[in-house]
Design goal:
The structure is a single chain. The protein folds into 4 domains: 185 residues, Nucleotidyltransferase, domain 5 (2-Layer Sandwich), CATH 3.30.420.10; 92 residues, no CATH class; 169 residues, Alpha-Beta Plaits (2-Layer Sandwich), CATH 3.30.70; 131 residues, 5' to 3' exonuclease, C-terminal subdomain (DNA polymerase, domain 1, Orthogonal Bundle), CATH 1.10.150. The chain contains 22 helices and 16 strands. It has a 5-stranded mixed sheet with strand order 3-2-1-4-5. Helix 4 packs across helix 5, helix 7 packs across helix 20 and helix 18 packs across helix 19. It is globular. The two termini are 49 Å apart. The structure holds a DNA duplex (12 and 16 nucleotides).
DNA sequence: TCTATATCACCC
DNA sequence: AAACGGGTGATATAGA
């Protein structure tokens, strides 16, 4: 019994579309082929009406490669999204995740992987460039695009035929998320367009001023470029012996700078400058004409099934200060809602470790762990035992990444034997978790694959990092939960702007944002319960109403610095200096922390 | 002048 | 042998 048998109609669908960075897609043409009857539709954009030219109801299946693109075109045309989506890209990723895929994950790569006839890659590139160029198109160009679109559909049918036997019902769940991804990409993240444009215009000036203020006369920077040669000369002049890498090059990482700044105070400003400059990256953020940050979420891109949007184009990619550009439009609000201790909760639920479950449900797993280990009394609080809690927190987080005693010792500034003691305490406190974790690694190694509750699979080879295997159940099931929450929320009509690994950014009317947050949290809770066999993960929310901007605590100082330098060069048009959010950050952000049973850890 | 590589920084 | 999971991407320098 094939997955396809339950559908009356199966439509293989491909759009060509035009979508400059930050813009919503603009469909150019559509080709669709019904698998069993051979019925075929090929339409240029002016022939596309207000509904799909084929059935997209519950008895039909829409098949595409990278279906978020097709779904984006549905949205652009005002069409209701199809009830059932099968995305052969998602299936191909799942089928080959962890394996060597010689020709990439595109449609051509998938065809090549299975030894199916492949169209000319040169032609594909030419046609893609034609779509990127945008209209108007001559009659010949239209014919070429439609032909190309049709050839992709033929290729898709070959691929479906090859992959059909391996398809499982769960494929529809993955396809369902591609619809949600399209909706989120469609909404995008609201930006302060004016601040954004001023930043882009004043970019080089900001860098110049920073360099000038701190280290202009030291000969370490040539223009805006750090010169190792210049730095070496400066070190010689200051009579400083600097650590070197095995390669002989100067060690220029921040840890080394930190170490050296402690011994030589004159190094500190240079470290600050390097840190600041390293965070000054934003030119690539793709912002649409509607002042919204919009980019491909790249669903299923990572081995754990996470989204992997481009760091440079996505508002949540670069340094956290960039998030200050996120600002709800008039009368609107946004909320950043993240799961509390998501990976710890997943580990607790899936392993069934009773102590871990209690620790999660206590609201402060780290302190609870310290108490379990006998390092803190039962009545200890976050305030009364901060140092102890920090150590046990580092241990919990470290074990989630399979950190060894040496790294933990280094990170926490403790001895290796102390680190060993902490790691042993974790094993002793959560024995069932460790048995479960060991079993997962054994299973993966013996079976050559490891999978999530809903079937996302990573294939395991001789070179697979065992720490990666140990981390997989937490990270990959976390991704599963996130995808499901995105489905629930978007299907409920919540305006989800973006997923951020363990969080959702949502938007709504300022007057109703509390309701929106509660509804979203309900979706997130339900998604976690669905994946974790009834175990609910709680979430915390941070709400920002217009005219305030989103601000991550970690980014405040940098935001303030950047805005100061920007104002010095290019005062804003109204002459009043940068609005409050740039001036006095501590008071400028309206944050309403929605109370969660878990509180903040 | 362009590309490849090593190193580093950032995100969750 | 390395010793922190999953990623993207910028930068500086060396080499073609």
């Amino acid at each position: 019994m094939s997955l396809l048998d339950q559908f009356r109609e199966i439509w293989l669908v491909d759009f060509e579309f035009h979508a400059p960075p930050g813009h919503r897609p603009e469909p150019l043409c559509l080709v669709a082929l019904e698998l069993r009857t051979g019925r075929r539709v090929a339409l240029w954009r002016d022939q596309l009406g207000d509904r799909p030219p084929f059935d997209t109801g519950p008895d039909s299946l829409i098949v595409a490669y990278y279906a978020s693109a097709e779904c984006g075109c549905f949205l652009a045309l005002g069409w209701e999204l199809p009830a059932n989506v099968l995305d052969l890209y998602a299936e191909f990723r799942c089928e080959t995740c962890g394996r060597y895929v010689p020709s990439g994950n595109g449609l051509l790569g998938a065809l090549a992987y299975y030894g199916l006839p492949v169209m000319d890659a040169v032609e594909k590139t030419a046609m893609r460039d034609l779509a990127i160029r945008g209209g108007p198109y001559s009659a010949e160009e239209r014919t070429a695009l439609l032909d190309y679109c049709a050839s992709d559909v033929r290729a898709l049918s070959l691929l479906l035929d090859r992959m059909e036997a391996g398809l499982h019902r769960r494929a529809l769940l993955r396809g369902r998320y591609m619809k949600a991804a399209a909706v989120m990409e469609w909404h995008g993240i609201p930006f302060d367009g004016d601040a954004w444009r001023r930043l882009v215009a004043g970019w080089d000036g900001i860098k110049d001023r920073l360099i000038q203020e701190i280290g202009g006369s030291l000969g370490i920077y040539r223009g805006r470029t750090f010169s190792q040669e210049g730095f070496a000369r400066w070190l010689a002049k200051e009579d400083i012996t600097w650590p070197r890498l095995d390669s002989g090059a100067l060690a220029l990482d921040d840890d080394t700078f930190k170490l050296m700044a402690a011994a030589y105070p004159q190094v500190a400003p240079i470290r600050e400058l390097r840190t600041a400059l390293s965070q000054l990256r934003l030119q690539e953020l793709s912002v649409g004409p509607d002042d919204r940050n919009r980019t491909l979420l790249s669903a299923y891109r990572s081995r754990t099934g996470r989204n992997q949007p481009s760091n440079s184009r996505f508002a949540f990619g670069p340094g956290t200060w960039i998030r200050g550009l996120i600002r709800p439009p008039p009368d609107r609000a946004v909320a950043y809602i993240d799961w509390a201790q998501q990976e710890f909760g997943i580990a607790a639920a899936l392993s069934g470790d009773p102590a871990m479950i209690r620790a999660y449900q206590s609201g402060d797993p780290y302190l609870e762990f310290a108490k379990l280990a006998g390092a803190a009394p039962p009545d200890a609080t976050k305030a009364s035992h901060k140092a102890i809690r920090d150590q046990y927190k580092a241990t919990v987080l470290g074990t989630q990444y399979c950190m060894g005693p040496f790294t933990l010792a280094e990170r926490s500034a403790i001895s290796v034997s102390e680190a060993n003691r902490l790691l042993a305490a974790h094993r002793r406190s959560f024995p069932r978790f460790w048995r479960w974790s060991d079993a997962a690694v054994d299973y993966a190694t013996l079976n050559g694959r490891i999978h999530t509750v809903f079937g996302w699979t990573q294939h395991v080879g001789p070179f697979t990092n065992p720490r990666s295997l140990r981390n997989f159940p937490m990270q990959a099931n976390g991704a599963e939960i996130l995808r499901l929450a995105c489905c629930y929320a978007t299907e409920a009509g919540i305006q989800v702007c973006a997923p951020v690994h363990d969080a959702l950014l949502v938007e709504g009317p300022a007057g109703q944002i509390g309701e929106v947050v509660r509804a979203t949290q309900a979706c997130m809770r339900r998604a976690s319960a669905d994946v974790l066999g009834g175990f609910e993960l709680e979430s915390d929310a941070k709400i920002v109403c217009h005219p305030d901007r989103y601000m991550d605590d970690r980014g405040r100082a940098m935001w303030t610095t950047v805005m100061r330098l920007l104002d010095a060069d290019t005062p804003p048009a109204d002459g009043r200096g940068t609005p409050p959010a740039g001036g006095s950050p501590a008071q400028s952000i309206k944050e309403i922390d929605v109370v969660s049973p878990l509180g903040a850890c």
